[in-house]
C-alpha cells in the first residue's frame, strides 16, 4: 500500500493527515504527506536532519501557527474533525494533542505547579484534593512520583535532565490528552534517562496515541510499532516498524537505515 | 605509531608542525598577556576615576548641605499672661483652643517681647517669620500660655550664617553679642524637613517640593508603567510584523532619545492649551513625565519579553494555554525583572527632570505643600534650580541640602525597586 494515495482510514484511527503541505513563506517544507495515527501503535518519524519530520509533527497540534510565515495545506483530522477548520478551538486542540519537546522545558515553578498548570487553566479539577490526585496520578504515570513525592514544592528546573523530561511528560498527560507528540524527547538525555523515557512510552501506549520524532533509529525500532521515513519533505515510506527496518520497500529508506546517508 | 612517523594522508598537504616553544610564539603569548594587563589597568583606572568623582560629589554636597540641616535659634522670654490678659484653663481645652489662639495677636506680643529683651531694633536678630514659629510652639503646647516662658526662635539668615561661617560685619557682631549672653544655640532644622518654600532662607523647607515630587512621580508611574508594559506586550506578542509595526518601533526608539524639554513643550500644548488643565499642577507634571518615560519602559519591556526563552512559550501553548495565559502566566513573570530595571531607570530620570516641568509652570512659588493633584506644586529638582538662582546667600546651603534630600530620595527609590526586582527574579 502506498500511503500517499491512501484515502480510507482504519476504524481505530485517531488522527489522519491527507496530502498535507507546509510552506515557510515561498519555501515548501512538506510535499503532500498522508498518514493515519491510531491508538494502538506508537508511530515513529525518522529521517535525516531537515527532512521535515518535526515540521510535520508540529502541524498535528497547530504549533506551526506561532510561526508567522508558516502555511499549511491539506486536511488533518482528529476523530474525523478537521483541526484547521475555523470551528476548531486551537487552545482546546493543544490540550487534546499534547506535546513533549526536544529540550526539557519545565516552567520555572514548583514541580507541583508544573503538573497542575494544565488542569488549572482548563478547570479540570474542582477542588484541591482532586488537583492533588491528578498531579499524583500524572507523576506516577510518568514514572517520576517516587523520585519527587517528597519535594513537590521544589523548582522543576532543579531536577536532572531526564527527570525534567519526565516532568514534561507528566505535565502533558495531566490534561488527559488523546494524542501525545514527542519531538526528539531523548536527544538531550543520557542513555539511562533515555531508557526510562522509552520504558515510559511503552507504558503509555494504548492509553494515548503517541507519535515520536527521533534521530535514533535504534530508538525508533525499540519504541514504535509503526515507522514513517521522511526525506526532503516527503514521506518516503510508512509501515510496520519491523518491516521498515528489516525489509524496506524503498531504496532511500534502505540507504538511510543502513547508514548510507543522514 | 607516533604521529611523526605516519605518512601524511594522500591528497592532504603535509601538515605544518606548530612550534609552540619557538621565539615567535613566545613573543605572541607575551604580547597577548601585555594587552590583557593594559586592558585591566584601563578598566581599573576608569572605575577609580568615577569613584573619585562620586566621592568628590558626595563630599562637597554633604560638606555644603549638612549646614542646611542645622538652624540657629535665639531665646526670647515672653510673659504670656501679662501680654494676653488672663486666659482661663478651660479656654485651652478641646475645640475652644483654636479660637483662643487665633484671638491672640501673636505678632504684636512677639514684637513687644523682642523690643523689651533686645531693644528697639531687636527684630533684626530674628527671622522675619519668627513670630509664626512662636505661634506654632503655642499651638503645640498651649500650657505655655499660662505662664512666663523662654522660646527658642529662628534667627535671621544673616545671624545664622554668622554662626555657621561668615556674614556681614553687623551680623557677626550681633551673633557675638548673643553668644556672650548665652542667648543662642544651634539645633537640627526640623523646619527644613517639614516646611515649604519661602522668602527667608532661614525658614524655608523642602517638604513642599518633596511632596510635589512624590505626587508627580506617582502619577508618572501609575500611567507609564501599565501603558508601557501593555504596549510592549502587544507589540511583542500580538502585533504582526509589518511596515506599520516597524514604523512604530522606530518612532518609539526615537521618542526615547527626544530631549526632555520638548516633552515639556508637548505637555504645554496638549495638557494646558488643549485640555485646559491647571498650570503648575502635579497631575500635568506627572502626565508630561509619563510621556517622556513611556518609551524607555516600552523598549526595556520589549527586550525583557524577547529574552524569555521560546521554549517556555511553547511549553505553555503545548498544554493548551491561550495567548493571554501564556503572556500573563509565563512571559511576564519571567520578564518582570528586566521590565523593572527599565522602569527604575526611567523613573530615576523622571525624578531628576527639571526642564519639561519648567515649561508647564511647575516652577511655582508654593509656600504650602500640594494637597491634591491639581494644587500648584513644585518638585525637588525645580526647587533646587529655583534656590540656586536666589540672590540671598542663605540659599546656598539650602540648595545643597535640597540636593542631599533629592539624592537620598532617589537612592531610596532605587533600593526599593532593586529589592522588589530581586524578589521577583526567578531562579533557574
TrEMBL record, chain B:
Which residue ranges does the record assign to the ABC transmembrane type-1 domain?
210-417
Coiled-coil blocks: none
Q: Does the keyword Nucleus apply?
A: no
How does the record say this protein sits in the membrane?
A: Multi-pass membrane protein
Cross-referenced Gene3D superfamilies: MetI-like
Query: Where does this protein reside within or beyond the cell?
Result: Cell inner membrane; Cell membrane
TM stretches of this protein: 41-62, 214-235, 255-276, 282-305, 326-348, 401-420
Keywords of this protein's UniProt record, alphabetized?
Cell membrane, Membrane, Transmembrane, Transmembrane helix, Transport
Q: Which PANTHER family match?
A: PHOSPHATE TRANSPORT SYSTEM PERMEASE PROTEIN PSTA, PHOSPHATE TRANSPORT SYSTEM PERMEASE PROTEIN PSTA-RELATED
Q: Which family does it belong to?
A: Belongs to the binding-protein-dependent transport system permease family. CysTW subfamily.
This chain belongs to the protein called: Phosphate transport system permease protein PstA
Amino acid at each position: 500500500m502506498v500511503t500517499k494515495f491512501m484515502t480510507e482510514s482504519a476504524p481505530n484511527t485517531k488522527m489522519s493527515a491527507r496530502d498535507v503541505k507546509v510552506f515557510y513563506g515561498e519555501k515548501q517544507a512538506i510535499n503532500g504527506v498522508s498518514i493515519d495515527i491510531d491508538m494502538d501503535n506508537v508511530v515513529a518519524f525518522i529521517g535525516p536532519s531537515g527532512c521535515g519530520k518535526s515540521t510535520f509533527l508540529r502541524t498535528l497540534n497547530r504549533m506551526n501557527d506561532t510561526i508567522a510565515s508558516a502555511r499549511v495545506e491539506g486536511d488533518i483530522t482528529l476523530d474525523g474533525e478537521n483541526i484547521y477548520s475555523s470551528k476548531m478551538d486551537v487552545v482546546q486542540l493543544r490540550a487534546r494533542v499534547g506535546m513533549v519537546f526536544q529540550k526539557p522545558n519545565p516552567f520555572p515553578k514548583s514541580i507541583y505547579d508544573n503538573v497542575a498548570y494544565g488542569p488549572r487553566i482548563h478547570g479540570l479539577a474542582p477542588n484541591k484534593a482532586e488537583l492533588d490526585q491528578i498531579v499524583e496520578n500524572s507523576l506516577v504515570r510518568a514514572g517520576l512520583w517516587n523520585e519527587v513525592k517528597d519535594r513537590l514544592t521544589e523548582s522543576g528546573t532543579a531536577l536532572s535532565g531526564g527527570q525534567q523530561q519526565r516532568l514534561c511528560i507528566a505535565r502533558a498527560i495531566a490534561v488527559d490528552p488523546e494524542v501525545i507528540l514527542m519531538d526528539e524527547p531523548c536527544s538531550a538525555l543520557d542513555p539511562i534517562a533515555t531508557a526510562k523515557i522509552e520504558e515510559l512510552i511503552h507504558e503509555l501506549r494504548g492509553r494515548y496515541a503517541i507519535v515520536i520524532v527521533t534521530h535514533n533509529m535504534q530508538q525508533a525500532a525499540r519504541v514504535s510499532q509503526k515507522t514513517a521515513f521522511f526525506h526532503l519533505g516527503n514521506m518516503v515510506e510508512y509501515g510496520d516498524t519491523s518491516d521498515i527496518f528489516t525489509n524496506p520497500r524503498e531504496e532511500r529508506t534502505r540507504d538511510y537505515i543502513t547508514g548510507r546517508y543522514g | 605509531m607516533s604521529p611523526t612517523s605516519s605518512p601524511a594522508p594522500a591528497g592532504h598537504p603535509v601538515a605544518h608542525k606548530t612550534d609552540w616553544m619557538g621565539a615567535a610564539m613566545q613573543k605572541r603569548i607575551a604580547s597577548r598577556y601585555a594587552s590583557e594587563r593594559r586592558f585591566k589597568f584601563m578598566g581599573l583606572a576608569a572605575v577609580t576615576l568615577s569613584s573619585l568623582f562620586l566621592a568628590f560629589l558626595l563630599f562637597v554636597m554633604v560638606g555644603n548641605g549638612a549646614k542646611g540641616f542645622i538652624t540657629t535659634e535665639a531665646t526670647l522670654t515672653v510673659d504670656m499672661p501679662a501680654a494676653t490678659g488672663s486666659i482661663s484653663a478651660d479656654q485651652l481645652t478641646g475645640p475652644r483652643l483654636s479660637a483662643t489662639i487665633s484671638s491672640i495677636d501673636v505678632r504684636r506680643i512677639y514684637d513687644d517681647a523682642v523690643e523689651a529683651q533686645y531693644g528697639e531694633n531687636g527684630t533684626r536678630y530674628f527671622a522675619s517669620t519668627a513670630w509664626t514659629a512662636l505661634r506654632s510652639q503655642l499651638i503645640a503646647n498651649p500650657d505655655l500660655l499660662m505662664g512666663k516662658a523662654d522660646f527658642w526662635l529662628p534667627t535671621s539668615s544673616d545671624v545664622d550664617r554668622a554662626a555657621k561661617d561668615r556674614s556681614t560685619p553687623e551680623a557677626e557682631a550681633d551673633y557675638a553679642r548673643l553668644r556672650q549672653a548665652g542667648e543662642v544655640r544651634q539645633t537640627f532644622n526640623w523646619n527644613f524637613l517639614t516646611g515649604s518654600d519661602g522668602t527667608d532662607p532661614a525658614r524655608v523647607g523642602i517638604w513642599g517640593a518633596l511632596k510635589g515630587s512624590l505626587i508627580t512621580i506617582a502619577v508618572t508611574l501609575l500611567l507609564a508603567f501599565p501603558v508601557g508594559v501593555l504596549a510592549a506586550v502587544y507589540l511583542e506578542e500580538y502585533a504582526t510584523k509589518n511596515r506599520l509595526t516597524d514604523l512604530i518601533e522606530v518612532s518609539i526608539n526615537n521618542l526615547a532619545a527626544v530631549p526632555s524639554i520638548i516633552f515639556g513643550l508637548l505637555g504645554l500644548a496638549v495638557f494646558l492649551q488643549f485640555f485646559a488643565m491647571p498650570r503648575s499642577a502635579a497631575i500635568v507634571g506627572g502626565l508630561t513625565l509619563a510621556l517622556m518615560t513611556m518609551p524607555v519602559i516600552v523598549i526595556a519591556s520589549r527586550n525583557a519579553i524577547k529574552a524569555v526563552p521560546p521554549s517556555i512559550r511553547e511549553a505553555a501553548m503545548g498544554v493548551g494555554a491561550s495567548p493571554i495565559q501564556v503572556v500573563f502566566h509565563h512571559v511576564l513573570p519571567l520578564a518582570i525583572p528586566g521590565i523593572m530595571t527599565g522602569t527604575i531607570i526611567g523613573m530615576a530620570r523622571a525624578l531628576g527632570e527639571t526642564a519639561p516641568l519648567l515649561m508647564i509652570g511647575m516652577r511655582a512659588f508654593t509656600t504650602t505643600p500640594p494637597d491634591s493633584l491639581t494644587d500648584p506644586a513644585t518638585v525637588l529638582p525645580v526647587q533646587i534650580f529655583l534656590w540656586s538662582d536666589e540672590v540671598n546667600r542663605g540659599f546656598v546651603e539650602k540648595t545643597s541640602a535640597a540636593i542631599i534630600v533629592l539624592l537620598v530620595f532617589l537612592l531610596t527609590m532605587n533600593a526599593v525597586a532593586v529589592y522588589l526586582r530581586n524578589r521577583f527574579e526567578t531562579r533557574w
